[in-house]
Predict the structure of Ras-related GTP-binding protein.
Amino acid sequence: MSIQYGDEEPLAGSFGAVDSFPKDFGYGAEEADGEGGEAGPDTKPRILLMGLRRSGKSSIQKVVFHKMSPNETLFLESTNKIYKDDISNSSFVNFQIWDFPGQVDFFDPTFDYEMIFRGTGALIFVIDAQDDYMEALARLHLTVSRAYKVNPEINFEVFIHKVDGLSDDHKIETQRDIHQRANDDLADAGLEKLHLSFYLTSIYDHSIFEAFSKVVQKLIPQLPTLENLLNIFISNSGIEKAFLFDVVSKIYIATDSSPVDMQSYELCCDMIDVVIDVSCIYGLKEDGTGSAYDKESMAIIKLNNTTVLYLKEVTRFLALVCILREESFERKGLIDYNFHCFRKAIHEVFEVGVSAHRPNSHMNMQNMKTVTHNGAPRAVV
Ligand SMILES: Nc1nc2c(ncn2[C@@H]2O[C@H](COP(=O)(O)OP(=O)(O)OP(=O)(O)O)[C@@H](O)[C@H]2O)c(=O)[nH]1
């Protein structure tokens, strides 16, 4: 395995200086800081985490965005107020995650749900699959129907969670039953147009990262372009699979159009962990300054089954991780050249995003806000 670390020059091009990656690989501020001309703390697009008490909302947020180990979540205290987590300082995912305290009382006059739902990109409703879920289904129905009336553009995502405790047959049966009941309730209320997506999740494996990846991908307007670029890149380079990862969260924000198999995804996640861990230990300067992830970051891992994993930096938040055969890797020069073109194209995609978001651009502020609310990813890469 070879890992290279570089110095911290700013990225070339018009993306502005690249702040060093947090050297302890830490995460963004807990409260939004409304940095540099972007939307203020409470106007960033939101992903809401809702569900009954103890369904696992805080655990999901801590494991995915704060590197908490699943076992540590056993000691999490119950959330008793809305917890707003702004992850945009360290992640490509320029959202606020709002963790709600158990049941929300829609009749509480201090709870301005209209304001909350209006600025929401995705609402994730977490159902504990190890518990009796009838009450959760009633809550799900109340929550999504209220939210839909305020903002029909919200993506409604249902995490059937804690499935680590269920047998494979039981998982499928639970998903089928929840799917059926939830949709029947919506049909009875005349809300057939309200679409719910279902995911089986657990914090004890990669399923929670996979599910979150899909939720976030739906909020990225540039997704089709990113997928196209990945398809072109892999087909011209003899690569089997490529993921564009948000390094901090290990959410993949895009992949090529071949099907995703869980093992490949897990392998790539593990590679990111290895690279960052080794980099944190050996990649920093003597005085402890420097960055664990910067524009020179790259790694090659050759497995004993003639597979090669290849990681390269794309932007300060994104890495490309590819899986390929050893024989294809003999043409590394070609792959590197294609990667260079791919990286340039990705920067151009987001550069367009930046200029479209500049206050003096032709787009008026009203339009800009609409784009942001519905989930545009961060403009500055
Ligand atoms: N087996 C299993 N347990 C989980 C999973 N996710 C969370 N838990 C456990 O569920 C319990 C409750 O988790 P929390 O994250 O505090 O739940 P919450 O929904 O935030 O609860 P409130 O803050 O009261 O609304 C904790 O003991 C977690 O360890 C999972 O995927 N599998």
Notes: The domain at 46-219 is CATH 3.40.50.300 (Rossmann fold). The longest strand covers residues 120-128. The chain is about 35% helix and 20% strand.
